[in-house]
Amino acid sequence: MSGDKKILVTGGAGFIGTNLVNELRSRRYEVVACDLLNHELQDYIRCDVRNYRQIESVFNTFGPFDYVYHLAAEYGRWNGEDHYENLWETNVIGTKHFFKNAGEIKVQISFYKKYVFSFHKKRDFLL
């Protein structure tokens, strides 16, 4: 039964996050989405994953959560070259904050390598 599951989606206002939030809500899950951007819809929380206290506040105020999709990220060539510190703080430090918080509230963390890694056959391309 999906109605009794509560899900947190970080990066909920991004492209993947928005689509995931919409799909989860269409399946009747209770979804709380957080993002650095302000969003007009209900259950969107402004939260900067680089700030541990903000993450902690989301978990304490809106949790407990059955599932967390951590999609908050900075990406792209320009961010990597011109805004390295912001990319590092969001992608690495922000993720560390989630692991730390999950450890404090005794949440089980699962990794599925099939979603992280993919292998492709080598192809010859004509130029």
UniProtKB/TrEMBL annotation:
<dbReference type="Pfam" id="PF01370">
    <property type="entry name" value="Epimerase"/>
</dbReference>
<feature type="domain" description="NAD-dependent epimerase/dehydratase">
    <location>
        <begin position="7"/>
        <end position="107"/>
    </location>
</feature>
<dbReference type="InterPro" id="IPR001509">
    <property type="entry name" value="Epimerase_deHydtase"/>
</dbReference>
<protein>
    <recommendedName>
        <fullName>NAD-dependent epimerase/dehydratase domain-containing protein</fullName>
    </recommendedName>
</protein>
<dbReference type="InterPro" id="IPR036291">
    <property type="entry name" value="NAD(P)-bd_dom_sf"/>
</dbReference>
<comment type="similarity">
    <text>Belongs to the NAD(P)-dependent epimerase/dehydratase family.</text>
</comment>
